[in-house]
Amino acid sequence: MNGERTRALGAGLLGCAMLLAAACAAPQKPEPPATVGADIRHGVEDPRVLELWQDAEVARQTRDFSRATVRLEQAVQIEPGNPVLWSRLAELLLLQNESARAENLAAKSNALAPDQPALRFRNWLIISYAREARGDTEGAELARRRSERLRGAGTADPGPE
């Protein structure tokens, strides 16, 4: 168990570093972030949402961020109360240099996930990188501190079970 937690923490830190690099990359083509950790799962009741999620993931992995965004926007229309969908959509928007919108959607995900500290950790990282991308270093640091307070609660992999 301790080894698993150490690996998860290491993966989380690597993912955070990659997400930060993606947020600070040249505006034309940022690198996609690695998934932060591996312990957030959520069930999907609607098969349409699962199909849209899977299509979005394929698009994300092939760097077709526009298609991935469209698919997740369709999924949140079906399941607007699903905080994991909002979080992944925020990540995709950050990759497309839509930092203000990314921050808003990560905050929405946080509001929908008060009892999911690992997802909230991930969202605060997204908020931090979005603020940094807009030159708000003070706001980015505040968001980073919020994420640090949640880090011990777990890491996040926003994917359906």
Structure characterization notes:
- This protein has 161 residues and is an all-alpha fold.
- It has seven helices and two strands, in the order αβααααααβ.
- The protein has a two-stranded parallel sheet.
- Helix 4 runs parallel beside helix 6 and helix 5 (99-112) runs antiparallel to helix 6 (117-133).
- The protein is globular.
- The two termini are 21 Å apart.
- The relative contact order is 0.18.
- Mean pLDDT is 78; it is low at 1-40 and 155-161.
The profile of the biggest β sheet is: 2 strands, parallel
Q: What is the string of helix and strand elements?
A: HEHHHHHHE
**Helix-and-strand structural type:** mainly alpha
Strands ordered across the widest β-sheet? 1-2
The percent range for strand residues is: under 5%
Rg over C-alpha atoms, rounded to the nearest angstrom: 14 Å
Secondary-structure blueprint:
Layout: H1 2-24, E1 41-42, H2 47-61, H3 65-78, H4 83-95, H5 99-112, H6 117-133, H7 137-151, E2 159-160
Parallel strand pairs: 1-2
Keywords:
disordered N terminus, 161 residues, 7 helices, 2% strand, two-stranded parallel sheet, mainly alpha
